TrEMBL record:
SUPFAM superfamilies: HAD-like. This is Putative phosphatase. It comes from the Bacteria. InterPro entries: HAD-like_sf, HAD-SF_hydro_IA, HAD_sf, PGP-like_dom2. CDD domains: HAD_BPGM-like. Pfam families: Hydrolase.
């Protein structure tokens, strides 16, 4: 398991770190996938494993657009009325609040890593979650007080894979993107961070989808994380 892109100069160390949320800090990604399938099924749309992988890391607005398009095809075949994207988005958000809100739990190594990094440099979270859900997640796993800020898909014009969320995160942290590290688990997130100019630490947690990274670990529980942090002078 090796990174796919050349890393920075060996003397480089991050002046800020921006973590993705789902799949990096907490185990809510599978719950979000269930939300998508549940809402899609209500409109007669099936999300298979291939489609689920394609949708991984996208924001609710993009998921709603996908489901709306497929639901329109189903409606035409059935001779029924098609849902609007606003209706689908509202159902996604409401269902997410019910399902994801009940399974907020930090992944192994997540809180410890955030706490260690926050002792040395400013830390943020950049997530495609909605604002209300992201607030619940940050407080639910007990890291809100460790963060300088967190940015949701509702805080910017476009969610990942567009760079807007990471651009806003580094703006709030007051650092140059080239001095910041993003921690991501999905191709969409990696694309967003790299386009914004950040270096990327991949933590795919078993995902096999190709993802461009400058550093790579299995997850934040990987012993390699500790070695990276010590190399940057971030002692636990």
């Amino acid at each position: 398991m090796e990174p796919t892109l050349p890393g920075p100069d060996p003397q480089w160390r991050p002046s800020a770190v921006v973590f993705d949320c789902d799949g990096v800090l907490m185990d809510t990604e599978s719950a979000w996938a269930r939300v998508q399938k549940q809402v899609a099924a209500g409109y007669g749309v099936d999300i298979d494993a291939r489609t689920e992988a394609d949708l991984m890391g996208l924001c609710a607005q993009d998921i709603a657009a996908f489901i709306t398009g497929r639901a329109g095809e189903v409606a035409r075949e059935r001779g029924t009325s098609a849902p609007g994207q606003g209706e689908v988005l509202a159902r996604l958000v409401d269902t997410e609040a019910e399902v994801v809100g009940a399974v907020i739990e930090a992944l192994p190594g997540a809180v410890e890593t955030v706490r260690t990094v926050a002792r040395h440099v400013p830390v943020a979270v950049a997530s495609n979650s909605t604002s209300a859900i992201l607030d619940r997640k940050m407080h639910g796993v007990g890291i809100a007080d460790l963060l300088r800020t967190w940015v949701s898909a509702e805080d910017v014009p476009r969610g990942k894979p567009a760079p807007d969320i990471y651009q806003e995160a580094v703006r709030r942290l007051g650092v140059d993107p080239a001095d910041a590290l993003a921690v991501e688990d999905s191709p969409a997130g990696s694309t967003a961070a790299r386009t914004a100019g950040l270096w990327v630490l991949g933590a795919p947690l078993g995902h096999t989808e190709p993802m461009a990274t400058h550093f790579l670990v299995e997850s934040l529980a990987d012993p390699a994380v500790g070695r990276l942090l010590r190399g940057w002078g971030f002692e636990r």
